[in-house]
Amino acid sequence: MTATREPRRGRPPGGAPRLTRVAIVDATLEVIDADGIDAVSMRSVAHSLGVDAKSLYNHVAGKDGLLDAVAEQILGSVRLPEPTGDVRGDLRAIGDAFRDGALAHPRAAPLVLTRRLTSLTALAPVEAVLGVLSTAGCPPRDAVPLLRGLVAALAGTLLREVRAGPARGAADAPGIARRQAVLERSGLPHVAEAAADLSRFDGDAEYAYALDLALDAVTARLGERRATGARRALSRE
Amino acid sequence: MTATREPRRGRPPGGAPRLTRVAIVDATLEVIDADGIDAVSMRSVAHSLGVDAKSLYNHVAGKDGLLDAVAEQILGSVRLPEPTGDVRGDLRAIGDAFRDGALAHPRAAPLVLTRRLTSLTALAPVEAVLGVLSTAGCPPRDAVPLLRGLVAALAGTLLREVRAGPARGAADAPGIARRQAVLERSGLPHVAEAAADLSRFDGDAEYAYALDLALDAVTARLGERRATGARRALSRE
DNA sequence: ACCTGAACACCGTTCAAGT
DNA sequence: ACCTGAACACCGTTCAAGT
Predict the structure, then answer these.
(1) pTM for the structure as a whole
(2) Does residue A179 register a pLDDT over 70?
(3) Mean pLDDT, residues A130-143 taken together
(4) Cβ within 7 Å of strand D: which of A 39-58?
(5) Which CATH entry fits the domain spanning B1-60: 1.10.10.60, 2.30.120.10, 3.40.50.10990, 3.60.20.10?
(6) How far is CA B140 from CA A189, A191, A207, B32, B131, in A?
(7) Which one, A50, A154, B37, B119, has least CB within 10 Å?
(8) For position A9, what pLDDT does the model report?
(9) Portion 61-120 of B in contact with A at CB < 8 A
């Protein structure tokens, strides 16, 4: 009769591949990619790592800290472009990089877009935008509201895009037809008239349009600022 | 010896004030106002109504349906302004009404801004914006992207504002000083230089600025469209 | 230093049984 | 028509006990 194996307790023997913070974050990202944010639990993540849920607390500040860490890892994966000196092009490139990062994990993107992040990696995109605006001759006092307006517009569109889910483009013809029919029967005249356009959604095109809209506004303000500055300089003579 | 009272089962006697859908939503809103969205549970809401959690299922489609109902009640409380014919002013008034509605329950606002709502009440603001754009001579095809860009910018700023919490304005001087110090030590030159501006946040001013930015872009597009249309009409002669 | 057993105080939700 | 008891399968988190 062999001795029954006692359930293991304490750290497993051997210099085995230890549980690590990034491994936990990666596993969480896999859970989210597969089943969405709501499927994340300390237990589900731990299970996918073959470990007990309570072990995660040695590497992560609870579930909330874990989700923050996921958001920060995504943010940290954004490859910000080198500035070229073309204000509009540079700002657009930053936006594109941000969008690419978000769309790499669409179901996790709301974490990046809605959680308040305080770490240093969260500041890199801010630094990039301020750098471009500074090169354009914009002092911080004026740059910060422009930055915030730009980020708000970008976050707003991306949030809409990832929320729309993978039912993007003209691929989902029956879904479009169904939505259109509902809108036409809404009893709201303008909604009914625009039903065909409201029921469609093309992520790439919507993003490009919304960013263009925001960049129009920002570059217009930069132009104004310069003009005002010039006028002031002139009147000082 | 008195008979011990059996725990009640089944509907309580008398034509008592029955549990109702709006009562449940109101109670949920009170929980959110007091303790935030995370404090909402079927049990906590039911408890505040002196009822069992399972009773809520007779009036609401689970917790998710309950949170949708909260978002829709807030959206339904938005008093949309009568259009005056001034495009920019009318769009701004719609934005203001939306913001007022959101700020009436700041902690619940993320529900309105991030959940995908499908009901008819969610379409009222859409109808309002499309109406204004239509009066301005903008056909649905062009109006829908403008609508979406505008909504994205609005949602983005409001989300930022409600997330910033009640630590708004210059009221929270020590908080501002602390944030500023962190930014100055970030090692990011432009962030450090803009630390004073980045650490401050004035909800009213940020909203006004961001909406102005978006309205600039929208009205510019409307102007272009008209000019293009005029040019087309001209070349057709 | 790091992992788990035991334990606690919670969750959302179904369904039949009651009135 | 509407409410609850019993029940199920979950949660996040603490802390001491182990290696």
Answers:
(1) 0.91
(2) yes
(3) 97
(4) 40-44, 53-54, 57
(5) 1.10.10.60
(6) 11, 9, 18, 38, 10
(7) A50
(8) 60
(9) 110, 114, 116, 120
